Amino acid sequence: MNISDLRQEYMLAELLESQVDSDPMKQFSAWFDQAVETNEGAAFEPNAMTLATGDGDGRISARIVLLKELDERGLVFFSNYASHKARDLAVHPQAALVFYWPWLERQVRVEGVVERISRARSLEYFRSRPRASQLGALASRQSAPIPGREALEKEYAHFENLYADTSVPMPEDWGGYCLIPDRLEFWQGRRSRLHDRILYVRKPDGGWRIQRISP
Ligand SMILES: Cc1cc2nc3c(=O)[nH]c(=O)nc-3n(C[C@H](O)[C@H](O)[C@H](O)COP(=O)(O)O)c2cc1C
């Protein structure tokens, strides 16, 4: 197989200036709802997004996290506050998110500042998680080296026993982050690589400048 022979024409839809919402969060919400509604067979998680962060030396790293809440301020995901990404965000709170919904031939890019959400709000979400995920969060010191798989399973079993008769407490170093966007791009694949790209940039007065950019 020759990788350079892999190619696809995008022809499902178009994205015009006249169609987009003046509020990018409403536009995002509309596209996100469509991604959820059209995700047949639930083969792909529409709320999966690539999160790119950088450290103080300008070294960038990226990984997938799940979008868990959406409000007028921004996009919320949950993670470990001592992880690699958390260390990056502590020194460099700017980050980028990318959603890819291939069955709609769409990509959304979001950039902005990331803040921790309140512990009360994190707790509310933690309580809604399945018990096994709660225990998993307790057992994992995310991004830290471990001697082997066994150590992780042992840690999980330890907490499973410890909290056998009670609710699982939320770890101190676990919680939510909200990315507050100042730039969002909606990308719709088109024929002949003439894709539609609509970019929103936050203005100093809080409004949004909307611009088509070249594919
Ligand atoms: C589909 C998918 C969903 C994931 N969701 C999350 C998530 O919501 N939060 C999280 O911390 N890690 C999630 N992960 C794991 C991350 O990709 C990553 O391995 C982890 O957060 C550690 O990253 P770090 O060492 O850069 O901090 C997910 C991975 C995949 C493939």
Primary descriptors:
single chain, 215 residues, alpha+beta, Pnp Oxidase, Chain A, nine-stranded antiparallel β-sheet, 5 helices, 9 strands, 26% helix, globular, binds flavin mononucleotide
Describe the overall structure.
The protein is α+β, with helices and mostly antiparallel strands. It has one domain: Pnp Oxidase, Chain A, CATH 2.30.110. The two termini are 28 Å apart. It binds flavin mononucleotide. The site of flavin mononucleotide has 16 residues, from strand 2, strand 4 and helix 2.
Please give the structural blueprint:
Elements: H1 24-37, E1 48-54, E2 60-66, E3 69-70, E4 75-80, H2 84-91, E5 94-101, E6 106-116, H3 119-128, H4 131-139, H5 149-162, E7 174-188, E8 196-202, E9 208-212
Antiparallel strand pairs: 1-2, 1-5, 3-4, 4-7, 5-6, 6-7, 7-8, 8-9
Helix pairs in contact: 4-5
The structure holds flavin mononucleotide.
> Looking at this structure, what is the CATH superfamily?
Electron Transport, Fmn-binding Protein, Chain A
Which ligands accompany this protein?
flavin mononucleotide
Annotation, overall tally of beta strands: 9
DSSP summary: helix tally: 5
Question: What is the structural class?
Answer: alpha+beta
Alpha carbon gyration radius: 20 Å
Sheet bearing the most strands, described? Answer: 9 strands, antiparallel
Task: Produce a short descriptive summary.
The protein is an alpha+beta fold. The protein has helices at 24-37, 84-91, 119-128, 131-139, 149-162, and strands at residues 48-54, 60-66, 69-70, 75-80, 94-101, 106-116, 174-188, 196-202, 208-212. Strands 1, 2, 3, 4, 5, 6, 7, 8 and 9 form a nine-stranded antiparallel beta sheet that branches.
